[in-house]
Amino acid sequence: MSSETAFTAALAQHRAVAIMRATSRDRAAAAMWAAVEAGFRVLEFTMTTPDVLGLVAEFAADARLTVGAGTVMDLEAAEQAVRAGARFLVSPVLDERVVARARALGAAAVPGCFTPTELWRAHTAGAAAQKLFPSPGDVAAYVRVVRGPMPFLNLLPTNGVDAANAAAVLQAGAAGVGFTTPLFAPELMHAADFAAIGARATTLLAAVRSAAA
Fold this sequence. Notes:
Elements (H helix, E strand, L loop, with lengths): L2 H12 L1 E5 L4 H14 L3 E5 L5 H9 L5 E5 L4 H10 L3 E3 L5 H9 L3 E3 L1 E2 L2 H10 L4 E3 L6 H9 L7 E3 L8 H6 L5 E3 L6 H6 L2 H17 L3
Parallel strand pairs: 1-2, 1-9, 2-3, 3-4, 4-5, 6-7, 7-8
Helix pairs in contact: 2-10, 4-5
C-alpha cells in the first residue's frame, strides 16, 4: 500500500489527527504517546518541533500509526520528512511544487487552503486532502457550503475544531479534523501533565466518534 493510500485509508477510518507543535523534544514525545494511548492513530509533528525527524522516525516505527510532518514549506523539508518515515506532508499554504514533490516521493500532500479557488487548485494538483486553514467563523457551515458544489474535496480542518464542534464539522462533510491546542494545551505541555493530555485525547476522540452515531 502506498503512503498516500495508507494516509487516505487511515483518515477515513479514524477521522482525527493529533498535531504536535512543541518546543521540547522529550515533552513532545511523551505527550504524543499519551494521545496514542488514548486512541489517536494519525499523528503529525510540525517541522518547527525540536528533533522532528527523530520523532517522526520513532512513531513511524509503530505499525499501528500513520505519521506525517507538518509545516512543510519547501522541497528539502519534504524529502527529509519522507526519508524519516512521514507518510503525509502538511503545509499551512498551497505550493504546487511541494504537492508535486510529495507525490513523487510517494507521500500524501495536504496543503493549507482557505478559499474555494485554493481548495480547487489543491485538488487539481493532486493533494490527497485539503487542510482548511485558518479557521472560518463557523467551521461546520463553511465545510457544508464549500462541499455543496465540490463534494469531491477531502477537507481537513485543523484550526477552530474542538470537542464542542468536532461532530458537527464531520457531519457537515469534513474528511477528518485535526487537533493542536485543544489536545496539547500549552499550559499542560509546560507542566508536563501528560495524564491530563491523555484525558483530553479521550474526550476529543469521543466527540469524533459521536459524529457517526
